[in-house]
């Protein structure tokens, strides 16, 4: 259903035609996603059931949250079933990452190479279009090296999130100036260790310019924390 | 009514042409274009980050500026899409197809001028449409009551989750995530906290701008910082004529088609510029292949129609989406949802009442949209070389700075730690959603619509005594229901029919 029409019949370039197993189908990303959504929806539903309903109201504070939780759980379940069925049917089933939104020109993601197949509204909207150029299948990215790279990429994303979390927690107690300058330097150096000098200059200049602009130009307060510079 | 509208608009122009208003419109377009040109930043991020900038302004100037920022960032997104193939947001994505191909073939200047002219033409036509359609809708709205409003918002969500790119199950999940987040916090009837799961930071609910910034800006920035990759080198813009006669002949009809299509789609609740641009691209492709008329290039390889149509549709959609926003208070897309929040922030409630009570302000804003569109054209054609310089900013610096701006923005809204923590939490959620292909925009729209849905739903149920049949007994609400069903059922049916037709066609065309 989500496949690019021309591709679904062909054997993938890798020629890997093994039989789909229940295990693979259960571990497919959409199956897991559906399960997570279903659990979250159920939790939301259960919590909403606990909201007191004043008798004089037809629609209480819990009415909509209950419906929404149930809806979320059902949609998650539906996604799970759809993904299971699809993955049991054929090896190509995972498809070109249904993220139609980002599939377009996404060069960030391995696999979804540059405008391979732009699908407008695969399930319901009027049409689909594909860019003829470079119509290589996403299956090509399945080389073993790509897997390792993706794993390392995942850790680096996690580390970037951790740095950002540190910044979020330090922002108020440490103060804007110090926390921002340090965060900018650490984050840019984490991403590009070979450019320490530039990173340091950017961190200091950016922080000061933004500080002055917001405090004096826009009258937006920024936390001073333990930073010795006064807000004057 | 026609002349009344004209005189209202005239009064609006008197205000909008005052030096201060003019300055804010120009400033907004300029800032919007600059921020929108930055790779990976589109209208939603641009407006959300720039909301603190407008805090100190009075409503008229603040709204004029933020609307202008909207236009500017739309156009800025096309610049980065055409020159480095990195659109700011999905609505500019189409420009990265034929626009980028034109640029690669040495026609960057033509591509950008085509986009700018198309934006101007479609934007202006759409504002004209807005000018004359809004008063009509305000009249129509007299027969609308809570059941109709409730259904219109439902329609918006249904369209937002079915007429999108990708799996409709996933966009449905996005809608429900937005709704669920919307219910968190103090409930509107009893004023007691609900669905907070015992967390203090959820007590007051989730501020919309925080949700939008966390979903749109944070994942994008973190992904880049985790795995930095340089942007493409911007395609150089060669000197030369912007459009030659052949270009004009081919672009003009595409502009016209795109403007019309964009406006109509924009007016529909729930869908906006993005769908307009995509549909226009598909339409131009079909027309092109149907009658190639000895053109040198193929569609998708730098056909000017593929730039002119979608770029016009895009901006026509922006104007169209303003219609239900201003006259009914129902946002048509994620970005207009953000604008609705801005209106509310200034103590205004868009809808029929606003046209009565704040008539001067409304018409000033509408008049400023004409000016903003013109400013876009006047600024962008000569300044494009300057904007291109922005594309050479090192991405790592850019994305780290975006994270700082996001935190400043979140802090400026609530001055509390919980806002900052929510940025982190929903940033992680947004990253996960994006990773699994759940679209982000429907969630944002749903979050804004939830309070409106809830109040209209409970009002309707209170009056009818819990009887849902009121929805089919009222003629207007029944019409909306039928319309919704048609919208949902039509595309799959058309596809089914087309599939059969294709098979037959194939047999006929095989010899060729």
From TrEMBL, chain A:
The keyword rRNA-binding belongs to this UniProt entry's keyword annotation: no
InterPro entries on file: DUF1468
One Pfam family, short name: TctB
Keywords on record: Membrane, Transmembrane, Transmembrane helix
Spans through the membrane: 32-52, 64-85, 157-187, 199-222
Positions of region (Disordered): 1-21
Superkingdom of origin: Bacteria
Domain DUF1468 residues, every copy: 34-223
Entry protein name: DUF1468 domain-containing protein
Organism: Sediminivirga luteola
UniProtKB/TrEMBL annotation, chain B:
Keywords associated with the record: Membrane, Transmembrane, Transmembrane helix
Keyword NADP belongs to the record: no
Source organism, top-level taxon: Bacteria
One Pfam family this sequence matches: TctA
Residues spanning the membrane: 12-31, 38-57, 63-84, 111-137, 149-169, 260-283, 325-348, 360-384, 396-429, 436-453, 476-497
InterPro entries: DUF112_TM (IPR002823)
Keyword Transmembrane helix: yes
Residue ranges occupied by any DUF112 domain in the UniProt entry: 22-445
Protein name: Tripartite tricarboxylate transporter TctA
Organism of derivation: Sediminivirga luteola
